[in-house]
Design brief:
Structural class: mainly beta
Radius of gyration: 15 Å
Number of strands: 9
């Protein structure tokens, strides 16, 4: 009964993280607004561009967290997704694997 929504599992935690140069950034450090990647776990019957297992890019400030069987997920509308990355999209001619 997700209709036009996508249930995703966020990647990485909100704790400490490491920059590409190896610098440890504490969880309390303030960063600029940025989108996050997550794995789609379930999709509603009206979702057209996402399948379970795809990676999606979303704005963390527009999220709605839900807890299912002790695990925390994020519930998003398909229209709020910024990109979709999937192996099946790479086969399309001229595609980068992302849908914006």
């Amino acid at each position: 009964m997700l209709h036009d929504r996508v249930l995703v599992r966020p990647e990485g935690g909100e704790g400490e993280r490491r920059s590409t140069g190896g610098i440890l950034i504490p969880a309390t450090a303030e960063i600029s607004k940025r989108c996050s990647w997550a794995e789609a776990v379930a999709v509603g019957q009206s979702v057209r561009s996402v399948e379970p297992g795809d990676r999606v890019l979303y704005d963390p400030e527009d999220k709605l967290e839900v807890e299912v069987r002790g695990a925390t997920y994020v519930l998003l509308r398909e229209r709020d997704l910024h990109a979709v990355a999937a192996e099946r999209l790479k086969d399309s001619e001229g595609s980068t694997g992302l849908y914006l």
